[in-house]
């Protein structure tokens, strides 16, 4: 996918955030079903890819249903990041996303992620190296407002991105020190979106269609990125995407639809990972009942499951106890995008 093609796809769209240990192939497929024009892998270590570590290379496994997919890579130096970008390109990625915003201490201690906001010359070198290595694929960047309040590093990254040929830029409108708390700075997003000639995607605090519309209207961003709120709720991504395009969104899912999708998601994780995927499948299944009656007890029950069959049995038992029609719980996910879109 070229930069021009990527830019056309993201206009007034809702993108799923790259989430570590979450954005696996099944999750990405659900996001595509919900109408996402592009999906992202969870962040992949450039060092791990080059060392051929299985925990890194398995993140480059994608299918037909999750594409186009951008591989998000992180690392401290230009050369390893360029090599990782080339490897992702060879493995068939549709684009490359550079992580320059992860605030996790383990990542920052490796001089990666948000640490690049504290070393702008090195950040610029990384961007230049990855864009050149990935050519002709589109390259995007995910970053933050800055390290601390009053820091304009996010704007500098945006200027580098425009200068060096990046397709689009996603900015989480909070600082690294804020983490995920506090209000996102929409004024900063507006400043960046109006100040650079490439599309800017807004991120941070988008939990509803109204949040997304407000972000677009007040900032002039090209699109929005939604993160933790869509874990177990791909229907939220669909509703947000529909609202941005002025289309009717799908109705909220029934219990049968939630459980069918949870079962499919768990099954696909185990299909890809084998029995070592069971712990992740249990965790993922619990996301789908968040906020529902008896969810806490269900989560406790799921944590005792030792196999995919047990996970499915617990989910069906839960649904039945709440009066769901178990016959309506099928093997396929029940997710779709905008009505008429």
Key descriptive features of the protein:
single chain; 341 residues; alpha/beta; TIM Barrel; 2 domains; nine-stranded parallel β-sheet; 15 helices; 9 strands
Outline the structure in words.
This protein has helices at residues 3-10, 25-33, 46-50, 54-57, 78-90, 105-108, 120-134, 153-164, 186-195, 209-219, 234-244, 255-273, 278-287, 295-302, 308-321, and strands spanning 14-16, 39-40, 44-45, 69-74, 95-100, 138-144, 168-172, 200-203, 223-226. With 341 residues, it is an alpha/beta fold. It has two domains: 3-244, Alpha-Beta Barrel (TIM Barrel); 255-328. Strands 1, 2, 3, 4, 5, 6, 7, 8 and 9 form a nine-stranded parallel sheet that branches. The radius of gyration is 20 Å and the shape is globular. The mean pLDDT is 93.
Number of strands: 9
Order of helices and strands: HEHEEHHEHEHHEHEHEHEHHHHH
How many helices? The count is: 15
Distance between the termini: 22 Å
Name the CATH class of the largest domain.
Answer: Alpha Beta
In the residues, how many domains can be counted? 2
Helix and strand composition category: alpha/beta
Based on the structure given, which CATH architecture of the largest domain is correct? Answer: Alpha-Beta Barrel
Major β-sheet, in short? 9 strands, parallel
Taking pLDDT < 50 over at least 5 consecutive residues as the criterion, the unreliable ranges are none
The CATH H-level homologous superfamily of the largest domain: Aldolase class I
User: Percent of residues in beta strands?
Assistant: 5-15%
Estimated helix fraction: 40-55%
Overall mean pLDDT stands at 93
Shape designation: globular
Which fold does the CATH topology of the largest domain refer to?
TIM Barrel
* Rg calculated over all Cα atoms: 20 Å
């Amino acid at each position: 996918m070229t930069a021009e093609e990527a830019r056309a796809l993201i206009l007034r769209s809702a993108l799923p955030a790259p989430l570590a240990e979450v954005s696996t192939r099944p999750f990405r497929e659900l996001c595509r079903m919900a109408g996402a024009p592009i999906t992202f892998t969870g962040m992949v270590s450039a060092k791990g890819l080059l060392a051929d570590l299985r925990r890194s290379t398995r993140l480059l496994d994608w299918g037909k249903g999750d594409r186009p997919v951008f591989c998000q890579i992180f690392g401290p130096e230009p050369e390893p990041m360029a090599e990782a970008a080339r490897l992702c390109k060879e493995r068939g990625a549709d684009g490359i996303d550079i992580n320059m915003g992860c605030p996790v201490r383990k990542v920052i201690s490796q001089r990666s992620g948000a640490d690049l906001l504290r070393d702008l010359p090195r950040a610029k070198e990384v961007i230049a190296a990855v864009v050149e290595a990935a050519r002709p694929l589109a390259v995007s960047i995910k970053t933050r407002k800055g390290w601390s309040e009053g820091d304009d590093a996010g704007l500098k990254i945006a200027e580098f991105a425009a200068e060096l040929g990046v397709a689009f830029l996603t900015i989480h409108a909070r600082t690294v020190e804020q983490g995920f708390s506090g209000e996102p700075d929409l004024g900063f997003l507006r400043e960046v979106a109006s100040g650079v000639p490439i599309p800017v995607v807004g991120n941070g605090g988008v939990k509803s269609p109204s949040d997304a519309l407000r972000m677009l209207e007040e900032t002039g961003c090209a699109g929005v990125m939604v993160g933790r709120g869509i874990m177990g709720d791909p229907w939220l991504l669909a509703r947000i995407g529909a609202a941005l395009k002025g289309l009717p969104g799908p109705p909220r899912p029934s219990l049968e639809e939630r459980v069918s999708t949870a079962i499919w998601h768990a099954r696909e994780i185990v299909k890809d990972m084998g029995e070592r995927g069971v712990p992740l499948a249990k965790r993922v299944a619990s996301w789908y009942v968040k906020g529902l009656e008896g969810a806490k007890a269900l989560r406790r029950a799921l944590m005792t499951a030792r196999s995919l069959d047990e996970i499915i049995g617990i989910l069906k038992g839960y649904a039945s106890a709440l009066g769901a029609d178990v016959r309506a719980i099928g093997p396929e996910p029940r997710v779709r995008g905008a009505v008429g879109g």
